[in-house]
Write a structure and sequence with these properties.
This protein is mainly alpha-helical and about 240 residues long. The protein has two domains: about 20-130, no CATH class; about 155-235, no CATH class. Helices cover about 70% and strands about 0% of the residues. It has eleven helices and no strands. It has helices spanning about 5-15, 20-40, 45-55, 60-65, 70-95, 110-120, 120-145, 145-155, 160-175, 175-205, 225-230. The longest helix is centred in the last third of the chain and has 31 residues, at about 175-205. The radius of gyration is 22 Å and the shape is globular.
């Protein structure tokens, strides 16, 4: 297995004191993909061909726009813009399906075309390929590395999305008995930490009652931020 390549970032994520190390792994991959896309690579033919075809989802085009390379983004957007609208114009004029996308010609083909574009993203594809290997590496380390198992059990749990991914993936990565054991441990970690965050969120809410104005914040000051991460896999500031 390619453990030498992927164990380091996985281990490093579980070393961090955070509410979901898997979110952190994804965030690091996402950051690297954005830097790559807006770096010198955007002038390379294979990258331009891919961004021209796939474009960017709403989430990632906002992140790209927030960086300083507006020229690079403009060039990629211009190519994608021209390709999409050229194909769309042909389809709209002839009332036919956009080439190669649908099995039958129908009036609602343009709506389906727009939906397909909405879910198409160069950054997502670049991240997801490596992220899947990171998930597989979690199971590999859990099965082979006692030190990692300790870190896994000592973690603050996971967000809802990544808890479900780990829970479902266990069946693929382990034997039936090993998968059941992993899931039991995962449940303990997840729900114990969900209770912790829920208590902190209650403390956050209680602070808005004037009767608790002088009550210490304790661990509740950032409880809303942590709750959003647990439920939405998203960091907010």
């Amino acid at each position: 297995m390619s453990d030498k390549l992927y164990t380091i970032p996985v281990n490093e994520a579980f070393d961090v004191d955070c509410e979901c190390p898997v979110c952190l792994m994804y965030k690091n991959l996402e950051e690297a993909a954005i830097e790559f896309t807006l770096g010198p690579s955007y002038m390379e033919d294979d990258v331009r061909m891919a961004t021209n075809k796939l474009g960017f989802c709403k989430r990632h085009v906002k992140k790209l726009y927030g960086r300083q390379n507006r020229l690079g983004l403009a060039l990629m957007e211009m190519s994608h813009f021209d390709r999409v609208n050229e194909e769309l114009l042909k389809a709209a004029k002839k009332n036919i399906k956009p080439a190669g996308l649908f099995s039958k010609e129908k009036p609602e083909a343009l709506t389906a075309f727009a939906e397909k574009l909405k879910n198409s993203c160069y950054i997502c594809e670049r991240v997801d390929e490596t992220f899947d290997r990171y998930i597989a590496t979690i199971f590999y380390l859990y099965n082979t590395d006692d030190a990692f198992v300790k870190k896994f059990k000592a973690s603050k749990g996971f967000c809802l999305e990544h808890f479900c991914i780990l829970y479902d993936r266990a069946k693929k990565e382990f034997s039936a008995s090993a998968a059941e054991s992993f899931r039991n441990e995962l449940n303990n970690i997840y729900f114990e930490n969900i209770r912790r965050v829920r208590e902190d969120l209650q403390g956050f809410v209680d602070k808005f009652d004037y009767k608790n104005a002088d009550k210490p914040w304790g661990n509740s000051r950032d409880a809303l931020i942590r709750t959003i991460l647990k439920m939405n896999s998203e960091e907010v500031e």
